[in-house]
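stage 2 :: seqdesign
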């Protein structure tokens, strides 16, 4: 099963510089048509299964060269996970890792008496798996429908030893996870209830933002977990979470549709609520 987890932010290297270096500037504007052509040419060097993968350029495998990806791609396969399905249990043996292509995962720890603590969420195109470990230490559940690019533990670890850039990318993502965990300790330990809820919504706005919205400063998304899970995650009561969301709605910081559909007109304005 796919086990463990590094909650990491995508790190763009190589590809972004390549495309930006090739984009044609005409009268101060980027020629996006030429950019797309060059992007297609760039992707043409990789295996066909990878050219259609939205996690390819931003995930851990983005550090692989075309020959390395050609070898590694032979061991990968796509897997669909339904909302609510358990991807791995705490203490399961680690046999596979994955990149999240789409969807959101919920991470939790279940105590011996049955109590559950939500540890966090993981988004595309993050790496899923406790690298170089034989045992998982958390439970991972699909918070939404998910698409995963799965690869065997043995193939991953072999490539990590053979390709320094691959291992370096993994280290970068691990350090990003550590930074995120430290920031969340501050949120849970020092922020007010209002700041906690705003910080949670900002996390979703940055990671689940729907493409093709009118403004780069705006966001639109579905909250992937229940109010009860949010309360558990933030160390609050369900009533407090609902009350703080209502305050943000009345202040026109967010728009709430159908209970879980959130529109953020200005991410910057929401960010100001995270520390004030």
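stage 2 :: out
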């Amino acid at each position: 099963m796919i086990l463990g987890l590094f909650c990491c932010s995508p790190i763009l290297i190589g590809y972004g510089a390549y495309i930006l270096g090739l984009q044609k500037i005409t009268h101060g504007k980027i020629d996006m048509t030429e950019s797309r052509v060059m992007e297609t040419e760039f992707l043409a060097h990789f295996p066909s299964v990878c050219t259609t993968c939205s996690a390819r350029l931003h995930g851990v495998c983005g550090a692989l060269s075309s020959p390395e990806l050609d070898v590694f791609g032979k061991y990968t396969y796509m897997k669909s996970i339904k909302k609510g399905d358990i991807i791995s249990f705490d203490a399961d043996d680690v046999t596979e890792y994955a990149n999240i292509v789409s969807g959101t995962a919920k991470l939790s720890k279940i105590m011996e008496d049955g109590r559950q603590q939500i540890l966090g969420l993981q988004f595309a195109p993050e790496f899923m798996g406790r690298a170089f470990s034989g045992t998982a230490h958390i439970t991972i559940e699909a918070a939404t429908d998910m698409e995963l690019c799965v690869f065997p533990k043995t193939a991953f670890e072999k490539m990590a030893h053979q390709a320094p850039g691959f291992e370096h990318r993994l280290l970068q993502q691990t350090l990003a996870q550590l930074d995120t965990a430290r920031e969340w300790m501050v949120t849970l330990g020092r922020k007010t209830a209002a700041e906690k809820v705003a910080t949670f919504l900002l996390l979703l706005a940055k990671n689940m933002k729907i493409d093709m919205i009118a403004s780069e400063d705006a966001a639109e998304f579905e909250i992937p977990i229940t109010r009860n899970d949010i309360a558990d995650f933030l160390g609050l009561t369900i009533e407090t979470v609902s009350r703080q969301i209502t305050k943000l709605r009345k202040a026109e910081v967010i728009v709430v549709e159908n209970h879980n559909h959130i529109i953020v007109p200005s991410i910057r304005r929401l960010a100001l609520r995270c520390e004030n």
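stage 3 :: structure notes
- The domain at 187-272 is CATH 1.10.10.10 (Arc Repressor Mutant, subunit A).
- DSSP finds ten helices and 13 strands in the chain.
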